[in-house]
Structures are given as structure tokens and as C-alpha cells.
């Protein structure tokens, strides 16, 4: 059963999360009908996911045979131990995270301008410090490479986002988790506390 309190329907929140992430998991069905999950870099722009690679290989072969795919992006913020809220029972142990899952159609991009735009966004994400000429279909240096590389667009038909940060907890338990994170001081614990306060603010008394 899906928990409604964890769902995110704000497009700005969803886009901001996807812009921060560079890695996701593509689910396809291979030629023998077996499921296959492929880790890869991606960008999200214009409401679509883009990835690139070789024209050959199992990934592209699977897409040509079955263009219905699934794509998932997830980021785990913190593990939440059970003893933050219960000194005996294991049940409260969990993790806090953001995730997006899309079901849709994978389309092989042939337009060089669209390829260039997607790859230039890749570069902005993966090499934000610059140090390269912008990817442009009109640049003769890039045209051979643009023709040689495969770029795939995933057009989502269903897209769901789940940001889990204790929205289902009672205020007493939420306070206990926040206190536990603040005392632990792990790498992303302070960030997790900020997400908890953002997505499940305390009610004023």
C-alpha cells in the first residue's frame, strides 16, 4: 500500500531533486523476456529523462524490441535506528530518502539539435566547472560525435515521487528522531533534520 503522506506532487520539488542527482536505474525487458536493470547517468529536462551510450549493446537492443521502460532515481539521506523512538522493539528502524519512479516510453533521439541540448545539460551537471566548448550541433567539431552517440529520451506516462522524512510519525516520535540525529551528527544527519522540518513541520500549540 502506498503511503499518501510520503508522496510529492510539487513539480518544482521533483525537478530540483532530479537536477541534483546524476545517477539512476533503467528497467527494461530483454529479448528473452527477462527483466534487466541498468545503472546509468541521466538528465531530466522538458519533463523527460535522457541518457546516452553506444548504438550497440544489450540496452539499446532491449529498447528497440520493447520500448516500455521504468526509470528510478533514489537518494538515501539517513538510517533511522529503532532506539531513537523505542528502547526495545525493532519495528521503528527505517531509512529516510527521496525517490522518483517513472514508467514510460523510450524513444531513440535522431535530431542532432536535441541530442546536443541533452548532452550539453549532461556536461553542466557532470562538469559544472566548465573547461569545454558548449555542445552544439552547429559546431563541426561535435557533429561526428553527435551522429555516433545514441541518445534516448524517456517520455513518462506515469511519474511518482516519494520523499520519506517521518511524515507518518507522531510529534513526540518526530522530536525523538530529530534529537537522535542531532546527537549522532552523521554526515547527512543535519540535512535530514532540515528535510524533516520542511516536509513535516510541527503543529503550533
From TrEMBL:
Protein's name in the database: Nitroimidazol reductase NimA-like FMN-containing flavoprotein (Pyridoxamine 5'-phosphate oxidase superfamily)
Organism: Paenibacillus forsythiae
InterPro entries membership: Pyridox_Oxase-rel, Split_barrel_FMN-bd
Record-linked Pfam families: Pyridox_ox_2 (PF12900)
Amino acid at each position: 500500500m502506498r503511503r499518501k503522506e510520503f508522496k510529492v506532487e510539487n513539480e518544482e520539488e521533483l525537478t530540483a531533486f532530479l537536477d541534483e542527482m546524476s545517477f539512476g536505474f533503467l528497467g527494461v525487458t530483454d529479448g528473452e523476456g527477462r527483466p534487466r536493470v541498468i545503472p546509468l547517468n541521466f538528465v531530466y529536462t522538458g519533463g523527460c529523462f535522457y541518457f546516452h551510450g553506444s548504438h550497440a549493446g544489450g540496452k539499446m537492443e532491449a529498447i528497440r524490441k520493447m520500448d516500455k521502460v521504468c526509470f528510478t532515481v533514489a537518494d538515501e539521506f539517513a538510517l533511522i535506528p529503532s532506539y531513537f523512538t523505542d528502547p526495545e522493539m525493532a519495528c521503528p528502524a527505517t531509512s529516510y530518502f527521496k525517490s522518483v519512479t517513472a514508467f514510460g516510453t523510450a524513444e531513440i533521439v535522431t535530431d542532432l539539435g536535441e541530442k546536443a541540448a541533452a548532452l550539453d545539460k549532461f556536461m553542466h551537471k557532470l562538469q559544472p566547472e566548465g573547461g569545454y566548448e558548449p555542445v552544439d550541433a552547429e559546431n563541426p567539431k561535435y557533429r561526428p560525435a553527435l551522429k555516433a552517440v545514441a541518445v534516448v529520451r524517456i517520455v513518462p506516462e506515469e511519474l511518482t515521487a516519494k520523499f520519506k522524512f517521518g511524515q507518518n510519525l507522531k510529534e513526540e516520535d518526530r522530536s525523538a528522531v530529530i534529537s537522535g540525529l542531532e546527537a549522532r551528527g552523521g554526515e547527512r544527519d543535519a540535512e535530514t533534520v532540515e528535510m524533516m522540518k520542511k516536509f513535516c513541520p510541527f503543529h503550533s500549540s
